[in-house]
Design a protein that fits this description.
The chain is mainly alpha-helical and about 350 residues long. The chain contains 15 helices and 5 strands. Helix 2 runs antiparallel to helix 11, helix 7 packs across helix 15 and helix 13 packs across helix 15.
Length: about 350
């Protein structure tokens, strides 16, 4: 098992310099790793076995398995009853060909590809932000994220940062707005992914989690497992072959899909995970709107980040800084040693107080 997921392990390491936030990392790191791991899991026959095993008379089993895997299997939704007595499994029993409505299950060939494609989509906002960011925060940190730095070195680098801020004051809004756009893109992407999965599973995903939760409250004798409906473990498959006289013969086969035992658990988890991600992303957007519109809110955040600085120093900086300046200064606070950052805020406030026109 560790060999299968060994390639994912490298994606879990944290960056030396933080250029985003925890909610952002839930999208491009946590969700990306989860989806790649699931994609690897459904392709690992070592732990799951054959994805499909079919039984039919007069046809070699390996040919039947390949045929049904390629051309899909089906169930008959109206065929419900007691498994082993009325039906083999829900949706699997004798039916009237051409008269009974059937539901084809074609998705299982594409689950691993769909999961991997979704993982790539969750990484797109991160890729955009990393490209637009261009290593600016890493350049500005100047190794001040290490507490063991000589006093002369710290003073010189603080002076460089103060000069940078005063020289580039009010010219960094576009930088911040690109990050805010990527945050909004994360939020939109979650709902896009839920819609894509819903289409992929034939409209069954939107209520999937609610139905699974509701299943626990129903009478065991009356309930129909929604996971078995969406991901049936036993299905039907019809093989067409020519008889001795040239007439097409239809051979009805029974197929077992052990892979669906894994698939159903994966998509139950993803349903709850996507809704959790959507909720926390929505709260992040509300927070971002407050940051963009609330000058006082930005002052409180900057004061909390700089900790021991006086109210007057924070007020001086907050009045002079626009949203882009504030954003870069706040991002630096995540990466610079707290004591050095406190001194930086103090130096910057003194610089602003000594300039009449900035």
């Amino acid at each position: 098992m560790f060999d299968v997921f060994g390639s994912v392990k490298g994606l879990l390491k944290l960056d030396v310099v933080c250029i985003d936030n925890n909610v952002f990392r839930l999208h491009y790191k946590a969700t990306f790793v989860i989806l790649v791991a699931f994609s690897l899991l459904v392709t690992s026959r070592q732990y799951i076995g054959d994805p499909i095993d079919c039984i039919v008379d007069d046809i070699p089993l390996h040919i039947m398995d390949t045929y049904c895997w390629i051309y899909s299997t089906f169930t008959v939704p109206k065929l419900n009853g007691e498994p082993g007595k009325d039906v083999v499994q829900p949706g699997v029993a004798a039916h009237m060909d051409g008269l009974d409505q059937v539901r084809y299950h074609k998705y299982y060939q594409w689950v691993c590809f769909a999961l991997f494609f979704q993982a790539l989509l969750f990484y797109v906002p991160r890729y955009l932000w990393k490209t637009w960011e261009g290593g600016r925060i890493k350049m500005l940190v100047l190794d001040l994220n290490f507490p063991v730095v000589s006093e002369d070195c710290k003073a010189d680098r603080r002076k460089l940062l103060v000069d940078y801020f005063t020289t580039n004051l009010h010219s960094q809004n576009f930088y911040a707005f690109r990050f805010f756009f990527c945050e909004f893109l994360n939020f939109i992407n979650v709902f896009l992914q839920m819609y894509v999965v819903d289409v992929f599973l034939g409209g069954e995903f939107s209520q999937y989690g609610l139905e699974v939760v509701g299943l626990t409250e129903m009478d065991p004798d009356d309930r129909i497992d929604p996971m078995s409906r969406v991901f049936p473990k036993v299905t039907k498959c019809t093989f067409h072959k020519y008889g001795a006289s040239g007439t097409v013969q239809k051979l009805d086969g029974l197929c077992v899909l052990p892979l669906n035992i894994v698939n159903e658990k994966i998509y139950v988890f993803l349903w709850f995970w996507f809704w959790f991600l959507a909720a926390i992303s929505a709260m992040s957007l509300i927070y971002r709107v407050c940051v963009c519109t609330g000058v006082n809110f930005r002052r409180l955040l900057l004061r909390a980040r700089s900790r021991l600085n006086t109210h007057d120093q924070i007020e001086t900086i907050n009045k002079r800084c626009q949203i882009g300046d504030w954003f870069i200064l706040y991002q630096l606070g995540k990466n610079i040693d707290p004591l050095i950052y406190k001194q930086l805020i103090s130096d910057l406030a003194k610089k602003f107080e000594g300039k009449e026109n900035v």
